[in-house]
User: Which sequence fits this backbone?
C-alpha cells in the first residue's frame, strides 16, 4: 500500500501525467434487437472474447455498422488528453487500415503513442458491438494483434516519466500482457510513481479474480471500479462491505455507482460525489471517462473531491451521445470548479 | 431517347430492379471549423479529389473520426434495398479491412455485390469529410482501388438482368471507369433496359461537362440532378431554362431543389413534388436517397408523382440524422402512399 499523492521522493518532474496501457481496439457498432443477441448466445451488457472465426461469422450476420477507435484505457487516455492532461499510451495494433485509424485518432487528441505495430501477424483488434433499443451495448472482442503485447513493449523510462501508470483489467485477457502489466508496475514504483487499475467489467473480474486480488493488495495504488465489479472482486453481497474491503486493501479506491454518483475512499476518509445530471443516450465509456477526469485532476494536484467532480462531468458528457470519447470542449466547466 | 417506363419488348423479367455502378468508398467523418478548411485550401461543400500523399497529410491533421461505408451510388443502392428493391452494385474495393467494411455494409442490407476486389494494388478508397458547425460537409476523396474499375468489371448479363442501371457522375473521375460506364449503357439498351445517371455535384459537372452532355443526349434515359448541377450542365442562368433544356434532351428528368421539393419532367408533362418536412441535421446523401426512393417506386410500376413522394420521404429520413443511409424503417410510410 503506497500513498495516493505524488511521492515526495520522486527525483524528476513527470513528463506525462498519465500513461495508459491497454488493448488497442477499433469498435464496430451496429443496432440489433434482443432476438439477435439470443440467436448468437450473447449475454446482454457483457464483453465476450471471440476468436477470428467467430468474429467473422458474427460480423457477417450484423447489420451495417460504424467504426471508431475504442479500447477502455485508450478511451481514458483520449478523454484525459482532451481535458488537458499530458498523456501517453501503450497498446498493440497491426500494420493495417484499422491500425492506422486507431493511431490517427489517439494521436489527433495529443496522446503520445510510441508502441510499434505488429507486422505479419494478426490484424488490429476489433470489438463488435450490438446496441439494443434499450441503449445497452453487448460487446464481442476479437483481440487480434493485442495478444502480442508483452513486456518488451513497456519502456521503463516512459513509465518512470509518468505520474500515474493506468492499466485496464481487460489487459489480463491476452496472457502475454500480464508480463507487460507487472513490468510497468515495477518500473513505476521503482521511480516513485503511482499505479492505477480499472477492473473493466464484472465478467473480467470473474475471469481473473485471484490475480486481481493479489495485484490490488500488493501492486496498485489507485483502484477504479463500479458497484458490480467491486462486489465481484471481494465476493461480497453488499456494496458497503465491498467498499470497506477495498478501503483496507488499497491506498485510494474510487468507486462509481452510475446515477448514485461516486465514493472515494482513502485511509479513513470517505467522500461522496454526486453524478452530473445529463440525458443518458449510451452509457459506454462512462467509467473510462470518469477515470480520465479523476486522474486529470489528481495529477494536477486537485483535492480528491474536485477530482471526482471532474470525473463526473467527463462521464456525463460521454454518456449524453454515442461514442466513448468527448464530443464537447469541457475546459471552461472544469476551470470553473473550485480547487 | 427511350421511354422511362419498362420497355414492353423486354423478353425476360428483370432479376434486379436497380444495378448501381460507382466509386466504392469508405467515409471518414470528423468535425472541423472554417479555419481548418481555409488552412487546407478547401472549398466548403465541394468534393475534391486528392492523391495518396495529400490524403495522408490531411488525415494526419484531422481530428479523431468515425468511419462508415459511403459512395454516392452505393448509398443509393443501400437505401433502395432497405426500401425493398432488388438491388445489385458494381464498385471496386481492395483486399483490406476497409474493403471488408464496405462489402459487409452493402451486403448486410441485401445488395448483391459481385465485383472482385483489387489485390496487391491501391487500398480501398476513402473520403475524408470535414463537418463544419453549420452542418455542411466538405469532402476530399482518395480514389485508391476505384481507379482500377474498368469494363471487365461489368458483366453484361448482370446489366441485362436489371430494370435500371444507375450510374453516378463521380464515376467519370477515374478514367478507366468511363469504359465501364459505356459498356454498361450499351448492354442495358441492348437488353431493352433503362440507363439512369446522377450528376453527383456541380464541380463534377464542370470537370466532365462535354462528356455528360453527350451522354445525357444519347445514352441516358433517366437523369437525376439538383439545381446547381442542372444549371451547370446546360450553362444556364436560371433553373427554368436549364429544366427546359433537360426536358428536350432526356426521356425523364428528375430535378431536386432541396426544401423547394422536386420537379419531374417527361415529354410535355411536368410534375412538382413537395419536400417532406423534417429537421435537417446533415444534408449528405439527400440526392442519393431521393434517387433510391424514386427508382424503387419506378421499378415497382408506381406513377411518377408517387415515385417522387417516395424519393422525398427517403431523403427526409436521411437528412434528419448523420450518415447517408437509412436509420429508420420506412416500409409502413411508403406502403401507405396511394398508387
Assistant:
Amino acid at each position: 500500500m503506497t500513498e495516493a499523492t505524488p511521492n515526495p521522493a520522486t527525483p524528476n518532474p513527470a513528463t506525462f501525467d498519465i500513461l495508459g496501457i491497454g488493448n488497442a481496439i477499433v469498435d464496430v457498432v451496429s443496432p440489433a434487437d434482443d432476438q439477435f443477441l439470443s440467436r448468437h448466445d450473447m449475454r446482454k451488457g457483457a464483453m465476450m472474447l471471440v476468436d477470428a472465426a467467430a468474429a467473422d461469422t458474427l460480423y457477417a450476420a450484423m447489420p451495417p455498422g460504424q467504426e471508431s477507435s475504442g479500447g477502455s484505457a485508450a478511451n481514458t487516455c483520449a478523454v484525459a488528453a482532451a481535458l488537458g492532461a499530458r498523456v501517453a499510451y501503450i497498446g498493440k495494433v497491426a500494420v493495417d487500415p484499422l491500425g492506422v485509424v486507431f493511431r490517427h485518432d489517439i494521436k489527433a487528441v495529443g496522446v503520445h503513442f510510441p508502441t510499434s505495430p505488429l507486422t505479419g501477424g494478426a490484424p488490429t483488434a476489433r470489438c463488435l458491438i450490438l446496441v439494443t433499443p434499450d441503449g445497452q451495448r453487448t460487446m464481442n472482442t476479437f483481440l487480434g494483434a493485442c495478444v502480442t503485447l508483452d513486456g518488451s513493449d513497456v519502456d521503463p523510462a516512459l513509465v518512470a516519466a509518468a505520474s500515474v501508470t493506468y492499466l485496464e483489467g481487460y489487459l489480463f485477457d491476452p496472457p502475454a500482457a500480464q508480463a507487460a502489466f507487472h513490468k510497468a508496475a515495477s518500473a513505476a514504483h521503482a521511480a516513485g510513481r503511482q499505479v492505477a487499475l480499472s477492473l473493466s467489467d464484472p465478467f473480467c473480474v470473474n475471469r481473473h479474480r485471484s490475480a486481481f486480488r493479489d495485484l490490488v493488495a500488493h501492486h496498485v495504488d489507485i483502484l477504479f471500479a463500479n458497484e458490480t465489479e467491486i462486489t465481484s472482486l471481494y465476493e461480497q453481497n453488499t456494496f458497503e462491505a465491498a467498499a470497506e474491503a477495498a478501503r483496507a486493501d488499497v491506498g485510494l479506491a474510487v468507486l462509481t455507482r452510475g446515477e448514485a454518483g461516486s465514493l472515494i475512499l482513502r485511509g479513513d476518509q470517505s467522500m461522496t460525489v454526486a453524478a452530473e445530471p445529463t440525458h443518458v443516450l449510451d452509457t459506454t465509456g462512462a467509467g473510462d471517462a470518469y477515470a480520465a477526469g479523476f486522474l486529470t485532476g489528481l495529477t494536477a494536484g486537485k483535492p480528491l473531491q474536485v477530482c471526482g467532480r471532474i470525473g463526473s462531468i467527463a462521464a456525463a458528457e460521454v454518456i449524453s451521445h454515442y461514442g466513448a470519447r468527448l464530443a464537447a470542449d469541457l475546459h471552461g466547466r472544469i476551470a470553473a470548479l473550485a480547487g
Notes: The two ends of chain A are 27 Å apart (CA to CA). Chain A has 13 helices and 13 strands. The first strand of chain A starts at residue 16 and ends at 21. Residues 304-319 of chain A form the longest helix (16 residues).
